[in-house]
Write a structure and sequence with these properties.
The structure holds two protein chains of two kinds. Chain A is of the alpha/beta class. Chain A is about 35% helix and about 15% strand. Chain A has three domains: about 50 residues, no CATH class; about 120 residues, Alpha-Beta Complex (Aspartate Aminotransferase, domain 1); about 260 residues, Aspartate Aminotransferase, domain 2, CATH 3.40.640.10. Chain A has a seven-stranded mixed beta sheet, sandwiched between helices. A four-stranded antiparallel beta sheet of chain A has the order 11-12-15-14. Chain A is globular. Chain B folds into three domains: about 70 residues, no CATH class; about 250 residues, Type I PLP-dependent aspartate aminotransferase-like (Major domain) (Aspartate Aminotransferase, domain 2, 3-Layer(aba) Sandwich), CATH 3.40.640; about 110 residues, Aspartate Aminotransferase, domain 1 (Alpha-Beta Complex), CATH 3.90.1150. Chain B has twelve helices and twelve strands. Classes of the chains: A alpha/beta, B alpha/beta. The interface between A and B is large, with 204 and 202 residues.
């Protein structure tokens, strides 16, 4: 077997040197009546050509590639320059361990330092970590961070937070003394109901966790929210599920948001059926020593040369054990490195362009839908790249099925998350959609009758 | 010697373009007010494509990697990452959106179901969730499952027992699941003694979290008695499967009384570590715990695969979407390549290699625990003229990645060495020869080792400075 380089001769030599007759003697400490179980039920080995054929046949059972897609809601197709795929696939980036030996890991460390810098530039907040698992778990870590820093146990979650994110936060805190309170959305506006927020804020509130652009695609009034919560010394925690918006919208720091956390899959990661993706967290300076996860910092070597190390590790589990700020160990380092490559390659101009085009395509679609009989854009203002449609004829499922027949995936039904909602579809646009793609979508919606 | 390149920001020049996007095809008519939009991303890099390539190639040359040589990090199982698996994971057919209709992604769902079957067959547990993103995430998930199960039994407990040799994630994961931690000392043989464990068992103990083989590379041979003692006390046995490599095809943890365990696809199942992640930490459970697994769950009904999103007893959702799907592809490809003919050989060769290193290095180093070695061996720096750190740093000069150092905490100056099965005897002989040479240097010129490494792109880095005056990003003119 090509992954097992010991030859039979080498095995015999080793056995002789270590003084055993039979390999089974190595496993004497394992209860004999339980060990060396039958392997009969396990499939036979595939040769490399057989493996390729097997996976090809699995791949053929997926037909999603034939469809024009407007699926979003936390994962979105954006164009990935080839250099990103080429460079990130190099074994020097893919096959090292965590850079615990910095002298021979400066490549990974500098790349993550650059990634941290770019995430900090995008949100305007001083501190970025080296990655968390994904947007949902990053949001949960942000809740824990705000609770830790404030010493308060009450956290407000906006109703307009992605339902999966809210579910993950609930799962994370289920055994902790943290109280989660939902702040409702204004039905007409789709954004946080500021009256409800005021009513639920108090001096015991650690944080307001709101998403912007929110789950329905709408940019929240971050400045107003931050100002309202700061009156109670409550932290404003912004969740971002579409990182591309960071390059189009004013940075959160301009609005005095304290923590920005979310999903950066849009920065050079393929859809990959949902993972691995990239959780990010950025926060203002005051959170530095309470941050979860690894952080890369700059330092000097014995000769005074600039270099990079994992730093502030006294926050982490391998030192602090149960008193650590998070249990995270393996993170999404390669995804962060790849995101850094993507951001550097797109650059100041290209990233701004992709971010603007994602919005402009959505705006183009919304303008075109005026006057359609069977669907209605629910919120014509304040959207970034996602648009909520109300299906007035039949159900969301009927609508999606009709367009699917024409090889278009016209969004995600909100029924996916809330089975009682049967008439809402969320569509996502990106710079990868051509005008012709959007015209086709529009035409098919017009034909839906 | 390779030098660090300037930071990408320092290479930036106004007007340079690295991307190849086309012009927008729709009217430039934003629907958002100008005061919500940013005018620019200040100081963001502007670098040409060729300079991007050279920048990252320069960074690549500064990294040691598994593709470059042996990586004997104990308890990390740095085994070779097969190249075909990368190609399969990158294949266009698998790149579906996670909310794609299930009838269009039957291949992906089947792939997940097949991997789960493999894991069930290898562990003897009843079912797995593939959702956890990493080992620690799996531990946390497992602890939530245990807590929910006990709550439903009407007997929520508050304590988790953890051996003193455990990885730091264990106590941390249990803590975030709401548990108090009690540390159980290991005995002179480096394992948990049933009588000692008994003295810790009371009505508050929810579970014991045990790594097996443990971080000394020793099999917890009392495991069945430990499981019985726990179960008699109404407690559960959680097994940290970080070191499952030693047991592949040898023994199924489910047959030993394990109730819950996580495994690490980025260790035992050959998926690349990526410089720290992504990993994947599936969690398996015995049948009585199946209802508590997180959602979603992929199930087969008839000849179709479907997904269950709600399950009244489930702990809920712990990860977006389905988990680290592209990592799952690689793991299934690895297992499919090994097949029943080779799976046991993985463990056998891993253990043979570890025992070979033990035998050959034992004349040079102190071996604090003499019990049988499985996949890794732990030495101490007792009686040496230099410290473990100095040996590790000198290994860098010889172009070898050091072993895990100063862990487990119960060994003074621990050197935790795990060769894995993917190193040849010739490679191990080279490693041994280098160790012999370094230990000879240590006896003859100990002061020289304090200066190691000399051959690396940077020398020992000032970690105290990094922590005392944190510089965590570049700012124009400030990162000199």
């Amino acid at each position: 077997m090509r992954y097992l380089p010991l030859t039979d001769t080498a095995r015999e030599e080793i056995k002789k040197i270590i003084g055993i007759e039979d390999v089974q003697d190595l496993f004497k400490s394992i209860p004999r009546d339980k060990s060396f179980f039958s392997l009969e039920s396990i499939p036979a080995a595939l040769s490399e050509p057989e493996l390729i054929a097997d996976f090809r046949s699995l791949g053929r059972k997926n037909s999603v590639g034939e469809y024009l897609s407007f699926l979003g809601a936390g994962a979105c197709t954006h164009f990935i320059p080839e250099v990103v795929s080429y460079l990130s696939a190099k074994g020097e980036f893919l096959t090292p361990y965590t850079p615990y030996q910095p002298e021979i890991s400066q490549g990974s460390l500098q790349a993550i330092f650059e990634y941290q810098t770019m995430m900090s530039m995008l949100t305007g907040l001083a501190v970025a970590n080296a990655s968390l698992y994904d947007g949902g778990t990053a949001a949960a870590e942000a809740v824990l961070l705000a609770v830790r820093k404030s010493g308060r146990q009450r956290v407000l979650l906006a109703e307009s937070l992605h339902p999966e994110y809210a579910a993950i936060i609930r799962a994370y805190v289920q055994n902790l003394p943290i109280e989660l309170v939902t702040v409702h959305a204004d039905k007409n506006d789709g954004r946080i109901d500021s009256g409800d927020l005021q009513a639920k804020l108090n001096g015991e509130t650690a944080a307001l966790v709101f998403q912007s652009p929110n789950f329905l695609g709408l940019v929240e009034d971050s400045a107003g929210l931050a100002a309202a919560v700061h009156q109670h010394k409550t932290y404003a925690v912004q969740v971002v599920t579409e990182a591309m918006s960071l390059a189009y919208l004013r940075p959160a720091a301009d609005f005095a948001v304290d923590i920005v956390v979310g999903e950066a899959q849009s920065f050079g990661l393929t859809l990959g059926f949902g993972g691995p993706y990239l959780g990010f967290i950025t926060a203002s300076e005051e959170f530095l020593r309470q941050m979860p996860g690894r952080i890369v910092g700059q330092t000097k070597d014995l000769d005074g040369k600039r270099g990079y190390v994992l730093t502030l590790s006294t926050r982490e589990q391998h030192i602090k054990r149960e008193k650590a700020t998070s249990n995270i160990c393996s993170n999404e380092a390669w995804c962060a490195l790849r995101a850094g490559m993507y951001l550097a390659t797109m650059g100041k101009e290209g990233l701004a362009r992709a971010a603007a085009d994602s919005h402009l395509n959505a705006a183009y679609f919304v303008r075109k839908t005026d006057g359609l009989a069977h669907v209605r854009v629910v919120y014509k203002k304040n959207f970034y790249n996602e648009v909520l449609l109300e299906i007035k004829k039949g159900t969301a499922d009927d609508f999606l099925a009709a367009l699917k027949k024409n090889k278009v995936l016209a969004g995600v039904s909100l029924g996916w998350f809330t089975p009682t909602v049967t008439d809402r579809v969320l569509l996502a646009f990106s710079e990868t959609h051509s005008r012709e793609d959007i015209d086709r979508l529009f035409r098919l919606i017009g034909e839906y009758a | 010697m390779n030098k660090l390149p300037p930071l990408i920001f320092e290479k930036s020049r106004d007007g340079k373009i690295g991307h190849g996007l086309g012009a927008s095809q729709v009217p430039a008519e934003p629907a958002l007010d100008a005061d919500l939009r940013r005018t620019e991303i200040a100081d963001f890099p502007q670098v040409s494509e060729v300079e991007i390539v050279r920048h990252y190639m320069a960074l690549a040359r500064l990294n040691y990697s598994l593709d470059a040589g042996i990586y004997p990090l104990g308890s990390c199982t740095m085994k070779y990452n097969p190249k075909i698996n990368e190609k399969l994971a990158a294949a266009e057919e698998f790149q579906a959106h996670p909310y794609a209709p299930h009838d269009l992604v039957q291949g992906n769902l089947e792939l997940m179901a097949r991997l789960e079957q493999w894991l069930v067959a290898l562990t003897g547990l009843a079912g797995f969730t593939l959702a956890p993103a990493a080992g620690a995430h799996g531990e946390f998930t497992g602890m939530l499952i245990i807590r929910k199960f006990l709550q439903e039994q009407g007997d929520a407990r508050r304590v988790v027992l953890i051996p003193d040799s455990a990885h730091g994630t264990n106590p941390s994961s249990a803590h975030f699941a709401g548990y108090e931690i009690r540390e159980v000392p290991s005995n002179a043989d480096g394992i948990i003694d049933v009588n000692v464990l008994q003295s810790f068992l009371d009505g508050q103990v929810a579970a014991l979290m045990m790594t097996n083989p443990n971080t000394l590379g020793i099999f917890e041979k009392n495991i069945t008695a430990i499981a019985s003692a726990l179960h008699a006390n109404g407690s559960l046995l959680y097994m940290d499967g970080a070191n499952l490599n030693a047991l592949l095809g040898i023994v199924r943890p489910g047959d030993l009384g394990v109730d819950v365990m996580h495994i690490n696809l980025h260790k035992t199942f050959s998926t690349p570590h990526g410089g720290g992640g992504p990993g994947s930490g599936p969690v398996g459970v015995a049948s009585h715990l199946l209802p508590f697994l997180p959602v979603p769950r992929v199930v087969k009904s008839g000849d179709k695969y479907r997904v269950i999103y709600d399950n009244p007893q489930s702990i809920g959702r712990i990860k977006n979407f389905y988990g680290q799907f592209l990592v799952l592809i690689r793991a299934l490809a690895y297992l499919s390549s090994l097949g029943r003919e080779n799976i046991r050989r993985v463990a056998e060769d891993a253990v043979l290699n570890a025992n070979y290193l033990r035998k050959r290095l034992q004349p040079l180093l102190d071996l604090p625990y003499a019990a049988d070695t499985l996949h890794e061996v732990v030495f101490s720096d007792k009686n040496l003229p230099v410290k473990t750190l100095d040996i590790a740093k000198r290994l860098l000069d010889y172009g070898v990645h050091p072993f895990t150092i100063y862990f487990p905490l119960i060994v003074h100056g621990a050197m935790m060495i795990e060769p894995t099965e993917t190193e040849s005897k010739e490679t191990l002989d080279e490693f041994i020869a280098i160790m012999e040479k370094i230990l000879q240097e240590a006896r003859e010129h100990p002061e020289q080792l304090l200066q190691a490494p000399q051959q690396t792109p940077v020398r020992r880095l000032d970690e105290t400075l990094a922590a005392r005056k944190p510089v965590l990003r570049w700012r124009k003119g400030e990162n000199l």
